[in-house]
Amino acid sequence: ARSKRGAKTTKTKDRPPIEVFPEVESSATFTLVSGEKVKTRRRTNSHTRTTSFVATRITMTGEKKSFGKIAEPFVCGGSAATFASIVIHPMDLAKVRMQLFGQLNPGKPVPGFASILTTMVKNDGVASIYKGVDAAIGRQMVYGTARIGLHRAFSEKLKEMNDGKPISFPMKTLSGMASGSIAVCIGTPFDIALVRLQSDSMAPVAERKNYKNVFDALTRTATEEGAGALYKGLMPNILRGMSMNVGMLACYDQAKETVAKLLNDPMIDGPALPTQIGASLVAGFTAAAFSMPFDLIKSRLMAQKADPVTGKLPYGGVADCAVQIAKKEGPIGFFSGFSAYYGRCAPHAMIILLSIESITKGYRNLVGLH
């Protein structure tokens, strides 16, 4: 049956007919001042004339993410990591040399990173402090891109699973550990080449490999020592990558909230520059403190060479390396070269975290994402 007004009706045994009126739905997309797009759906009941609105955040004009949007964290993260690596390469070079000094010169005091760089410039020229920069660039284009891109992708997915609410620190830690371990597995061969290039000139003249560039180091290492040599020290490198990502990315997010409260920064349109700098300094320290022991073991394992007489390697593995360092150099030996390591981590973290914002804006303008 139909009522006088033409709407469908339903009858029950003991109740009068109930009119069911259709709803008219329309939608529109708006762009907020912050650049975020919001899709609204308006539903109007034709009888009661009541209107309800449902707003949904969307990442772009369409419902599905474009390739440009999916690639954004990887392209921008990799670019920022590569830029930062070029800037701090001399400090990274000094850090590796300080870590290997105890192995090559047992019993002698480890020189400071400023002394190491000054000596290199005097003996071999300014270009010597950028030895292996091509390997550093290659490493960041692979490792840095995966590390930051995957962390952002995982974090966004976890936010979606959390109904769009900010995720907790344990969840940030989980994202950092997962992305860091995956990135290390991809970028370890370039890490091997980087350490070899940086440490080759420290060996006796007769034992030097004299690598020409990163590709020469990769191919010769695989040819002379087998493909497995490109993944030497993988386990401590994975532990280092996980601890580095947690210390740098997860701790940065947490420190940003704390620093913002201390500086009374409302962070309405994102953190202010002083907040970013303060949080980056904290993240640089935590990244260095968490990852330093694993980085030291990784460098020792990657740089080790077989004894020409016995054919045996100095270290039998991660555990053996850790035991030998503790016995010969003491617990403080795990933090040998910490000044240079922190001097590398803090600027590296700051450059990445500060430059990635500008790089992201430029990327969005270039590919038409607003």
Give a description of the structure.
- By secondary structure, the protein is mainly alpha-helical.
- The chain is built from 10 helices and 5 strands.
- Strands 3-4-5 form a 3-stranded antiparallel beta sheet, with no helix packed on it. A two-stranded antiparallel ribbon has the order 1-2.
- The two termini are 52 Å apart.
- 37% of the residues are buried.
Question: What's this, in brief?
Answer:
This protein has 370 residues and is mostly helical. Helices cover 60% and strands 9% of the residues.
Summarize the helices and strands and which ones pair or pack.
Blueprint: E1 8-10, E2 18-20, E3 23-31, E4 37-45, E5 51-58, H1 67-87, H2 89-104, H3 113-124, H4 133-161, H5 169-199, H6 214-225, H7 234-262, H8 273-303, H9 318-329, H10 338-367
Antiparallel strand pairs: 1-2, 3-4, 4-5
Helix pairs in contact: 1-4, 1-10, 2-3, 2-8, 2-10, 4-5, 5-6, 5-7, 7-8, 8-10
